[in-house]
Amino acid sequence: MNATQSPAPKTDLAVTHVLAQLLERLEHSAVPVGAEQYRSVVMHLVDEFRDVAPGDGLGKLLDAYPAAAEVYENLNYQHAGLCRSGLDASLAAELAAKSAIERAKRHAEPDTAHGQG
To answer: Percentages helix, strand, coil for the chain, rounded to the nearest 5?
Structure first.
């Protein structure tokens, strides 16, 4: 019998921590960062996230590094949605989007009351 075994999730977050810290530095850099460098860090972080075990250690890491948390959340969106985003921020974003859509609709509709359109 040839059973394929998936490797056990990593519990050592040292590499993940360094990458998350580096991404945070790139996000807040006062000096322009090259797209390839940024992409490389994000892709390495994505690879690490695929292998790490969920738990308190990962949660603390994501709480400490918002840029890494956003990457993690996007990777897991299909399973959990925006589970790490604050409810207040999500609600405010939804209400702002609804308001913007309504304003756009009002500006796009012809003005039939004044003989225009």
So the answer is: 70, 0, 30
- From CA 14, how far away is CA 34, in angstroms rounded? 25
CB 104 within 8 A of CB 98: no
Extract the tokens encoding 77: 């969106």
Instruction: Say if CB 67 and CB 20 are below 8 A apart.
Output: yes
Residue 115: which region, alpha, beta or left (left: phi > 0; alpha: psi -120 to 50)? left
Report pLDDT digits (tens) over 6-51: 566 667 899 999 999 999 999 999 999 999 999 999 999 999 998 8
Query: How far, in Å, are 33, 49, 68, 80 from residue 74 at the CA level?
Result: 22, 11, 10, 9
C-alpha distances in Å from residue 78, one per residue of 39, 53, 73, 81: 22, 18, 9, 6
d(CA 43, CA 59): 20
